[in-house]
Task: inverse folding
């Protein structure tokens, strides 16, 4: 039975969140900006022997009884590209003699011994994957299929993502976040039987005067649409990571990637007529530490940073969800600027209890999932407000520097794009017109927009 090996002794990393959406103490490493050795040479063309050998590993893996000889045979048939499959195996088996054999195999395939890396004892998988991403190592032939066969041992509901042969997903970056896919129907507030990060659909909203349950100094994610303003408390968003909601007559899906520090608001009522409005859900998968969201109706996956459908029928239709701005503010500042705002009711409107800090400082020391190399212009977890212009140009504003400059009464602008204070957070404008923007950690914004301009560096 698929998934049997999960209970049969395979050693797993802890999840981003517990099965009920609450945080758990991570056991994996944090790796910030660092240097990597030169990339190994990689061949081109097929390697049928390696593909066959990897297939022979998967069946016993379900029972947690992989033999070292099977790993050795796979390595002997491989090349540096197949280090990706060693890394994928390490995601699920991190300790013991089999894991040691995988690390030896990684060294054989790449010519780089990572066993003396300072983080190796905490997460061999993280170390191996960071090297491969930083090197931009090509994927091996048949990687999508082989990786799909491995990952669907954990959750067979991921199969549609892997089965789309024309998918735009970079399979090298795809990893497991430690939880399963959320496929509950729209409006279902029950916890997932198999464990997931449960979306919150159409939460009860109350006037600001009834929001005194939430501290004024606590963070909210503010969204305005038409004449309506809504505040989403950060502690609730840390648990659910996704809200489907109607604001100002528009249907929105609002994901919050806790790993990227990024809350975004996507319009889901502008898809082609043959499709129902997407119902956004969390898949349990990550792409270079960014949550992979998907549409419940079509099982189409999205690039959560850009809103582009990257698999399934919505990808075939060329759907790119347009964005509204999300303002990161405190509850006190937001309601002072928007006195008619509503806020999610205490308990999420579903009678749940939320701690003040569900993640308990999980991300305080840097990214906890592989990101590869990082843009050194800012610290990895520096907050930036980012914007994508119509011509494809991307701009990021360093929040800390911008607050200082704006407090002195000076302007923050890059070309014809400017940053302005708004409700305790910021808006971005060009020629007096507000542009959709959102806040994120620098490592996330820069890795998905590597050519981004950065204020004040490029001003």
Result:
């Amino acid at each position: 039975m698929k998934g049997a090996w999960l209970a049969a002794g395979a050693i797993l990393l802890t999840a981003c969140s517990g099965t009920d959406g609450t945080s758990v103490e991570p056991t994996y490493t944090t790796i910030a900006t660092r240097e990597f050795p030169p990339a190994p040479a990689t061949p081109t063309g097929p390697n049928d022997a390696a593909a066959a050998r990897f297939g022979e590993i998967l069946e016993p893996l379900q029972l947690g009884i992989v033999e070292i000889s099977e790993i050795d045979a796979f390595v002997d048939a491989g090349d540096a590209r197949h280090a990706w499959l060693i890394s994928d195996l390490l995601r699920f088996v991190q300790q013991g003699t089999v894991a040691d054999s995988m690390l030896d195999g990684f060294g054989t395939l790449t010519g780089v011994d990572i066993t003396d890396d300072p983080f190796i004892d905490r997460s061999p998988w993280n170390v191996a994957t960071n090297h491969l991403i930083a090197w931009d190592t090509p994927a091996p032939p048949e990687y999508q299929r082989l990786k799909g066969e491995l990952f669907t041992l954990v959750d067979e509901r991921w199969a549609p993502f892997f089965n789309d042969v024309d998918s735009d997903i970079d399979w090298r970056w795809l990893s497991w976040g430690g939880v399963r896919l959320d496929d509950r129907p729209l409006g279902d507030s029950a916890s997932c039987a198999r464990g997931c990060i449960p979306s919150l659909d159409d939460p009860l909203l109350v006037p600001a005067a009834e929001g005194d349950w939430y501290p004024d100094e606590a963070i909210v994610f503010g969204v305005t649409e038409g004449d309506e303003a809504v505040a989403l408390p950060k502690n609730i968003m840390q648990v659910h990571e996704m809200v489907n909601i109607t604001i100002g007559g528009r249907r929105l899906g609002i994901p919050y990637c806790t790993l990227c520090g990024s809350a975004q608001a996507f319009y889901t009522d502008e898809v082609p007529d043959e499709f129902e409005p997407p119902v956004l859900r969390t898949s349990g998968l990550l792409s270079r530490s960014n949550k992979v969201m998907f549409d419940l109706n079509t099982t189409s996956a999205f690039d959560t940073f850009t809103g582009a459908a990257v698999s399934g029928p919505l990808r075939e239709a060329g759907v790119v969800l347009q964005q509204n701005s999300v303002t990161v503010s405190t509850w006190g500042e937001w309601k002072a600027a928007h006195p008619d705002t509503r806020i999610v009711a205490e308990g999420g409107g579903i009678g749940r209890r939320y701690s003040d800090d569900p993640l308990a400082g999980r991300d305080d020391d840097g990214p906890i999932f592989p990101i590869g190399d990082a843009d050194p212009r800012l610290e990895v977890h520096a907050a930036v407000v980012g914007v994508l212009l119509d011509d494809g140009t991307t701009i990021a504003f360093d929040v800390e520097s911008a607050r200082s400059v704006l407090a002195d009464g000076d302007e923050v602008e890059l070309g014809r794009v400017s940053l302005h204070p708004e409700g305790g957070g910021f808006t971005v404008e060009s020629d007096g017109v507000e542009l959709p923007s959102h806040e994120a950690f620098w490592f996330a914004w820069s890795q998905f927009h590597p050519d981004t301009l950065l204020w004040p560096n490029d001003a």
Q: What stands out?
A: Residues 1-31 have pLDDT under 50 and may be disordered. The CA atoms of residues 88 and 125 lie 8 Å apart. Residues 383-455 form one domain.
